[in-house]
Design goal:
The structure is a homodimer. Chain A is α/β, with parallel strands linked by helices. Chain A has twelve helices and twelve strands. The first copy, chain A, binds a DNA duplex through helix 2 and helix 4.
Chain lengths: 325, 325
DNA sequence: CTGTTAGCGCATTCAT
DNA sequence: ATGAATGCGCTAACAG
């Protein structure tokens, strides 16, 4: 900055102001500074200033996985919203492990981020403690069933699960199955499952099969598990999947093996990913506003002053019946 | 750090050394410092030191899009490799626009990254200039057909395209189509296409239909375009798609409409994404090492000293014939 | 609208 | 194995 200032014939502080676009600078001076910077090939160091201001143009983001479109879409929403303000997300992948999440948050805090975006409402005690100590602004996303640290953005996982149960029951299915993944590590999926299970049983229907892969969810896993479940004695009339990938894999199994959907077995997914509408049958699913959740959380981090004092932000989810139930 | 030092009864410099794990520190002192830090809730500021060292534990990454699994897998590879060294990727999305890429690089340089990872070998002149001026370490990924700034990691897009042409020709197809997306903005896809086209024509066969969506590639777009192409007079006997999503969408169309594959039309994709193996038919495709490309590029950024002086790193691609050709 | 002064939190360098 | 002095590149606060 000193060099730029010398070349432009102004003070170093003026260069700083031009670079950040703050304060009142006459057009002539501004142009001169910009030209001088270009001339000597100067690139503003945006992190050095964080030293003086105690924070950086960064938002720390923890995602459970990158293998699932859901979280890359959330990340897209965050990135798009932050981009307008020149901030950037710096992310870590927790692999659905709370203790790993704790380590990640500790690391991300060493970047002095303006805020943190975390998945879900469940965290370790140490995590909560360090958040309280440092006073970072934290947005919790994807789930609103619980008490947020500061603010939550998402929808009710329990309501979504119960709603799908009601839908299947309304279609007359009484012998129902559930197929998930990750051995139940996905706490949001688990919440959906539990509400689903409660609702099914409360109606006097039976949850006849619950299967979870140890692996991550994928079409391949869905196809494999569905084949297994349908091969057992007295298979379910309808299966609720933890997400669309699993459900789509199930549909592929049925297409390949000539199993009639929904006559022989009904299928329901979760998330409403775009690719579903390319499949031969429209899969019944629940639409979730993934991009918007990321965008809303990012916006909340960006505007500490905004009159938005709500702690719980329900962006809603919508059950979309298809041709598979 | 001062506070930690006071509590631990050592100098600030010793705390700095403990935090970074460098230099020789006696176990007693180290433990005392760690305890003191925990006691007062101190979190190391990893970016402040970048001030003194002229760079930060950051690698700037440009990806063309987040809508495509391909690039999230590359990002995973980068993230996994950097994680071991405590660095983090900071990414920007170029939307396949070279001028936007230029802006992003300029922005990423303001983070004083240890290196940059860029998609492809084509960049604007200004981009090249600023890279040269700042002397950042740059890894170019996904393509090796050309002259890298410093080092490239990927495979030959041209070879992959030609190889698929040979495969289709060997199966006896003479009237061939191509379906892409993004109006040709994806320069790697474009290179594949051109080599494919050359090879088809050199063999005396005909490229009878070339269709590109303006939108991003997706199963939905693939299904829609395939329906259109097959509805025209004298449709192609085989279609080469810019990627697996498009090809999978085509297969869905054929399944839904009772079009026999590969009897009525043969289909070939590109990338070898996992989900292909869940489809009712194995789609012919080219396997690409996406995760490994990201990992290799990250490793190269991490080890400036390594004896690796090669500029071109061919990680290879493999044509995998399936049941659709 | 622009400049001066002071200092952010840390790492390098050189002592000891 | 540890400490003191110094400076990195930048911004806040205030002066004018």
């Amino acid at each position: 900055m000193h060099d730029v200032a010398r070349v432009a014939g102004v003070s170093q502080m003026t260069v700083s102001r031009v670079m950040r676009g703050t304060g009142y600078i006459s057009k002539d001076v501004r142009d001169g500074v910009v030209r001088a910077a270009r001339e000597i090939g100067y690139v503003h160091n945006r992190l050095a200033g964080g030293n003086a201001t105690y924070d950086n143009p960064i938002v720390g983001v923890v995602v459970p996985t990158m293998q699932n479109r859901v979280f890359t879409e959330v990340l897209s929403g965050i990135n798009a919203t932050l981009g307008e303000s020149g901030l950037r997300p710096v992310f870590g992948v927790s692999e659905y492990a709370l203790d790993h999440e704790e380590d990640l948050v500790f690391d991300l805090l060493s970047w002095r981020p303006r805020g943190l975006i975390l998945p879900g409402l469940e965290h370790t005690a140490s995590l909560r403690k360090i958040i309280a100590q440092t006073g970072v602004r934290v947005a919790e996303i994807m789930d609103i069933d619980g008490d947020p640290i500061a603010a939550s953005f998402g929808f009710s996982q329990a309501r979504a699960g119960a709603e799908m149960a009601h839908h299947l029951l309304a279609q007359g299915y009484r012998r129902i199955g559930y197929i998930g993944s990750l051995g139940g590590l996905d706490l949001r999926a688990q919440k959906r499952f539990e509400a689903f299970q409660r609702t099914v049983r409360a109606a006097g229907a039976a949850l006849v099969d619950v299967t979870r892969a140890e692996s991550a969810s994928s079409m391949v896993a869905g196809r494999r598990m569905t084949a297994a479940v349908l091969g057992r004695r007295d298979p379910p009339e309808a299966i609720y999947f933890a997400n669309d990938d699993l459900a789509a894999g199930a549909l592929m199994h049925c297409l390949a093996e000539g199993v009639d959907v929904p006559q022989d077995v009904a299928l329901a997914g979760f998330n409403g990913l775009d690719f579903l509408s390319a499949l031969p049958k429209r899969v019944t699913t629940t639409l979730t506003p993934r991009f918007d959740i990321g965008a809303a959380a990012a916006r909340w981090i960006l505007n500490p002053e905004a009159g938005d004092t709500a702690r719980v932000h329900d962006l809603g989810s919508v059950l979309r019946p298809g041709d598979t139930t």
